[in-house]
Amino acid sequence: MLVVKNLRKKFGDVIAVDGISFEVKKNEVVALLGPNGSGKTTTLRAIVGLVLPDEGEIYVNGINALKEPKNARNFMSFLPQRISMYENLKVIEIIEFFRKIRNLPVQRVEYVIEMLKLSDILNKYASELSGGNVQRLGIAIAIMPDVPLLVLDEPTLSLDPEGVMRFKALLSDLKSEGKTILFTTHLLNEVDELADKVGILVNGKLITFEGASELKRKLKFESKVYLVISNMDDKFVDIAFDSGALDVKRNGTSMIIKADSKRMLDIIFKIKECGAKIENFQTSSQSFEVIYQKLMEEHHGEKS
């Protein structure tokens, strides 16, 4: 659905995007991560035709987006990071305005109102909306065209926790409809819930682009398990270490084990085989924030 090849863009002496390449297949959800100034927004703006790259190629649904930008735009819709609305118009008037610009059927208005749960703010003026509601409206406008590719720059920006949950549900619905989605986000710990693939940008370079699960495995993804053992004994701590645990903390009848996720089940079974009566256990996984930090450290280590 989307192919980016050797994309480069400079603004004066600043290299915003430095020769990045990646592909997004049909019906994939892909997240681009990176700190401010890493090149995420410039990349998205180049894809949708708002920035002309200095070098590189962009193909949308097989169409050369740099040579046929108008044709390519027919297959995608864009949500910018910063949304400006006509403050003297009501929400329903703004939605209707964008519907007419894109020459869309009236049914698409009903669709976005339902998908974004906008009924409660339809008659409010844009000037009366909170930042989160402005963002909801922006997302509604972005998904109104029935196009195969959605390009969303920081779609969860300004959303409250309930709004983020709604967005996650929306993304799942859009994916089930067959949409392809490329988005950036600052909520790193949610990427593994939303994305099939993850790209991480640092100083304009794409330092990794791969499946979320593959990225975790490559970085020796660690997890934790919390065990409650009715007949707790120090020997179970020793058994956990002998079986490959990286760290074990005991507190009364409970024990927290940290280990490579691939070894965790073997460690638990070994403890149980040695006589432990496990009453309860809970697992937790390392967040993408930790993974991201590791990649940043590796990248800066390579540069030095």
List keywords for this structure.
alpha/beta; Alpha-Beta Plaits; 6-stranded mixed sheet; 304 residues; single chain; Rossmann fold; 2 domains; 4-stranded antiparallel sheet; 14 strands; 29% strand; 11 helices
Please give a structural write-up.
The chain is an alpha/beta fold and 304 residues long. It has 2 domains: 2-217, Rossmann fold (3-Layer(aba) Sandwich); 222-285, Alpha-Beta Plaits (2-Layer Sandwich). 36% of the residues lie in helices and 29% in strands. It has helices spanning 40-47, 69-73, 91-101, 107-116, 131-143, 161-176, 191-194, 212-218, 234-242, 264-273, 288-303, and strands spanning 2-11, 14-24, 29-33, 55-60, 63-64, 76-79, 149-152, 180-184, 197-202, 205-211, 222-229, 247-251, 254-260, 278-285. It has a 6-stranded mixed beta sheet with strand order 6-7-8-3-9-10, sandwiched between helices. The protein has a 4-stranded antiparallel beta sheet with strand order 2-1-4-5. Strands 12-13-11-14 form a 4-stranded antiparallel beta sheet, covered by helices on one side. A hairpin with a 2-residue loop joins strand 4 (55-60) and strand 5 (63-64). Helix 4 (107-116) packs across helix 5 (131-143). The chain starts with a strand and ends with a helix. The mean pLDDT is 87.
